[in-house]
C-alpha cells in the first residue's frame, strides 16, 4: 500500500474515488512513480474538506461519485477554491458527461480500466501543460512579464532567473543540477540555490540542447559537472544523485565510447 508520508520532494496528489479497490490501486501506482498521496476522499464533501486542509498539487477525480455531489460538481467547487491540474477518471465517456466535464477545464480524461503507464503519462502531461500555460500566459505583455513571480529565460549559454522582481543571470556552466521539490524546481549552481515555481519537465524543456540531462524523476544533472558515476548514481560537487531506471539508457547514451 502507498505511504502517504513518503517522498517529501514529490508532487502531492488528492485521490477522489468511491471504489476502494480502485483507489488503492491508484495509490500504489502513485507510490511507485514517486508521487505523494496527500489524501483519499470517497465523496464530494470530504474531497472539498481535504482539498482545503492538505497541500494539493493535482487532483484525480472519479466522475461518478456517490452522494450529493458528483465528480464534476465537486471539481467545480475545488477549482473555485484554487486551480490545480485536474484529471477525470471514468468508466463512461458519453457526450453529455464530457460536455459538462469540459466546463471545469480538466487537464486529462482517463477511461477505466487504465494501466499505470497511462496514468503516469496523464499526470506528467497535466503538470507540464498546467505550468506551461501559466508561464505562457504571463508573457502576453511586458507588464505581465514584469509581474511574473518565477520565470526562466535563456539566451545562448546564459540563464535568466527572476528572483525578487529582477532577472539574475547564471552561466549554464555554473549550473550543477536541478531537483524537483513539489510544484517547484530547485536550480543548484556553484554558489546559490534558485527556486522556480515550474515543473521539472518544463525546466528541462527550456534547457534542451544543453548538457543538462534528466537522470531521475526528481533530478537532472549538468554532464560537465559529473565527478563520477556508477550504474546507480552520479556524484556532482560531492553530492550523490540517484539514477532512475527509466532514464539510465538515455543518460549513458550522452557519453562517447572510446
Describe this structure in words.
With 258 residues, this protein is an alpha/beta fold. The chain folds into 2 domains: 12-136, Rossmann fold (3-Layer(aba) Sandwich), CATH 3.40.50.2300; 145-253, Beta Barrel (OB fold (Dihydrolipoamide Acetyltransferase, E2P)), CATH 2.40.50. It is built from 8 helices and 16 strands. A 5-stranded parallel beta sheet has the order 2-1-3-4-5, sandwiched between helices. Strands 11-10-9-13-12 form a 5-stranded antiparallel beta sheet. Helix 4 (95-102) links the parallel strand 4 and strand 5 (108-111). Helix 2 runs parallel beside helix 3 (71-81). The relative contact order is 0.09. Residues 1-9 and 134-150 have low confidence and may be disordered.
How does the SSE layout of this entry go?
Blueprint lengths: L11 E5 L3 H14 L2 E6 L2 H10 L4 E5 L8 H11 L4 E5 L4 H8 L5 E4 L4 H23 L3 H6 L4 E4 L2 E6 L2 E6 L3 E7 L2 E6 L3 E4 L3 H7 L5 E5 L2 E4 L3 E4 L3 E4 L2 E4 L2 H9 L5
Helix pairs in contact: 2-3
Q: Into which percent range does the helicity of residues fall?
A: 25-40%
Compute the number of structural domains.
2
| Cα radius of gyration in angstroms | 20 Å
Succession of helices and strands: EHEHEHEHEHHEEEEEEHEEEEEH
CATH architectural group of the largest domain = 3-Layer(aba) Sandwich
Q: What do the pLDDT scores average to?
A: 83
State which percent range the strand residues make up: 25-35%
Q: Compute the number of helices.
A: 8
N- and C-termini, Cα separation: 45 Å
Major beta sheet, strand line-up? 2-1-3-4-5
Question: In total, how many beta strands?
Answer: 16
Largest sheet: 5 strands, parallel
CATH superfamily of the largest domain: Response regulator
Instruction: Give the class-level CATH name of the largest domain.
Output: Alpha Beta
Low-confidence stretches: 1-9, 134-150
Helix and strand composition category: alpha/beta
Shape: elongated
Amino acid at each position: 500500500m502507498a505511504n502517504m508520508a513518503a517522498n517529501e520532494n514529490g508532487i502531492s496528489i488528492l485521490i477522489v474515488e468511491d471504489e476502494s479497490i480502485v483507489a488503492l490501486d491508484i495509490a500504489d501506482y502513485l507510490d511507485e512513480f514517486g508521487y505523494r498521496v496527500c489524501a483519499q476522499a470517497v465523496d464530494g464533501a470530504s474531497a472539498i474538506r481535504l482539498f482545503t486542509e492538505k497541500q494539493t498539487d493535482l487532483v484525480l477525480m472519479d466522475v461518478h461519485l456517490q452522494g450529493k455531489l458528483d465528480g464534476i460538481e465537486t471539481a467545480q467547487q475545488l477549482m473555485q477554491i484554487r486551480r490545480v491540474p485536474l484529471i477525470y477518471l471514468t468508466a463512461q465517456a458519453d457526450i453529455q458527461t464530457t460536455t459538462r466535464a469540459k466546463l471545469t477545464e480538466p487537464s486529462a480524461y482517463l477511461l477505466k480500466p487504465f494501466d499505470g503507464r497511462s496514468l503516469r503519462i496523464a499526470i506528467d502531461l497535466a503538470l507540464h501543460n498546467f505550468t506551461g500555460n501559466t508561464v505562457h500566459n504571463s508573457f502576453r505583455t511586458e507588464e505581465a512579464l514584469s509581474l511574473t513571480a518565477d520565470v526562466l529565460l535563456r539566451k545562448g549559454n546564459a540563464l535568466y532567473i527572476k528572483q525578487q522582481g529582477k532577472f539574475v543571470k547564471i552561466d549554464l556552466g555554473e549550473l550543477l543540477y536541478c531537483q524537483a521539490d513539489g510544484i517547484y524546481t530547485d536550480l543548484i549552481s556553484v554558489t546559490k540555490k534558485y527556486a522556480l515555481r515550474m515543473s521539472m519537465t518544463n525546466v528541462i524543456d527550456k534547457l534542451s540542447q544543453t548538457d543538462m540531462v534528466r537522470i531521475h524523476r526528481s533530478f537532472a544533472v549538468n554532464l560537465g559537472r559529473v565527478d563520477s558515476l556508477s550504474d546507480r548514481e552520479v556524484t556532482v560537487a560531492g553530492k550523490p544523485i540517484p539514477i532512475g531506471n527509466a532514464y539510465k539508457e538515455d543518460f549513458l547514451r550522452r557519453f562517447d565510447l572510446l
